[in-house]
Amino acid sequence: MKRLYIGTKIFLLSMCLLVATSCDKEFMAPFRDDPNNPLDVSNDLQLSGLLGNFSYSVLGSDPARIPSFWIQYTAFTGAPPSEDNYDVDESDVDNLWTYSSYTAVMQNAKLLNESATRQENYHYAAIAKLIWAWNMSVVTDLWGEVPYSEAWQPEKTLKPKYDPQESIYTAVQELLDGAIEDFNKTSVRSPAADDLLYPAANQNAWRNNSLPKWIKMAYTLKARFHMHLTNAPGYDPVEQSNLALIALQNGFASNADNALFQYYDAEGAENPWFQWAIDGKWNDDTRLSASYVARLQGLNDPRLPIQVQPTTNGTPQYNGAPNGVGNLDNNDISNIGNFYSDAEAPLQWLTYAEAKFIEAEARFRVSGAEAAQEAYQQAIVASMEDLGVDQEAANNYVEARPVLTATNALEEIIEQKYIALFLQFEAFNDFRRTGFPNDLQLAADALTPTIPVRFPYPQQELLNNAENVSQTNVPTGRNGLTLPVWWDRD
Prior knowledge:
Elements: H1 7-10, H2 25-28, H3 43-59, H4 62-70, E1 74-76, H5 94-118, H6 122-143, H7 165-183, H8 203-228, H9 237-248, E2 259-261, H10 272-278, E3 286-288, H11 290-298, H12 304-307, H13 338-341, E4 347-350, H14 352-367, H15 369-387, H16 391-400, H17 409-420, H18 426-434, H19 459-464, H20 466-470
Helix pairs in contact: 3-5, 3-6, 5-6, 6-7, 6-8, 7-8, 8-9, 9-14, 14-15, 14-17, 15-16, 15-17, 17-18
InterPro entries: SusD-like_2, TPR-like_helical_dom_sf
Pfam families: SusD-like_2 (PF12771)
Protein name: SusD/RagB family nutrient-binding outer membrane lipoprotein
């Protein structure tokens, strides 16, 4: 099953973004006509479009959706082959790379950062740096070596070189450090309602209530990215864990800090999972994986009825589809729970529960299982509370979990984190770097010998930047899907 893309849906909130650009030199000319008097577009319009594009076209799109089949949150019930059978090629990822990440998000983040810095609107510049860093991390986590140092410079080159993933991770951390520095500056203007993630009635309210959350988010992301390198060549897992723990001291402190992007029941403004799986704008064949439903049932997990809808046949039950099979009756297969897939459901960007799971893993790596126990339990409770699970049910579930030991700690932490991060891209990163969950089976009629661990380089790059792509030594198309990225080498 190949997907048809509708451009207006990919950019549902980007109409307010007046600086969406391509890498075309002629298009960029107006921005270079007078370097002494650079053109400044209203930062509030830039910010709204940037956040909307990043949420829908990146965090709510292919980076979450395609790996959701591979790590068996979801399964495809339509006609195979599909992404569920690992049928992903160069054309499938063009939009994510070319139009979403490198243009609608990162190029516009760069422009917002430059414009806001010129105007001393440092809080806008800070958000731009944070989103730029985050999207850059997604791109390198999916593809490994990618353009960064020569990207977004069409006046110099239309064929930017591919930077090593290690150097990109350094740049991501530097961007986040720069964001934190800018957040702490006095800003001529600050966001308000144009901050679609943490909106406020006015600038003062934003500075008092939203600004602290953005700062905590930056530190929590730093912790996440430190942990990505626990198995990277030449990196010490204890040192990376200590860096994560230091960052978390200033990170998310409760569910009140959760970064949740709100959607609305209006044409083009609905939750992306609603559009992908429920409404049929793309298809309605993305359902729950039998593997995931069985996991929740086996654990007697009270999140089951929140994450999973009952079937719509004559005997409603929680029932998933085996991955890779396809051609199934959707009435017999559970859909994604309303908490995640209602038209008005917010999209989870980053949560306190994840911060506590990061802490639990880091403490285990530094000081052992006993040191991780409290953060591990707090992480589970935070996830349950976020989903509205009854407190008694949450406590009973935590008490039923085995005590962490040297032999089970990492598996227990990552399995529970996997459940808490339902439908999020970060779970795919955890699977690759830790190997957990370690009971995922190859999909039926799989087109690769093992579960994929990266995206193929996109068609536009193969056509327009082939020499630099070839220097990565990553096979093209499906042949490269099973080659780990740099930090995934253990």
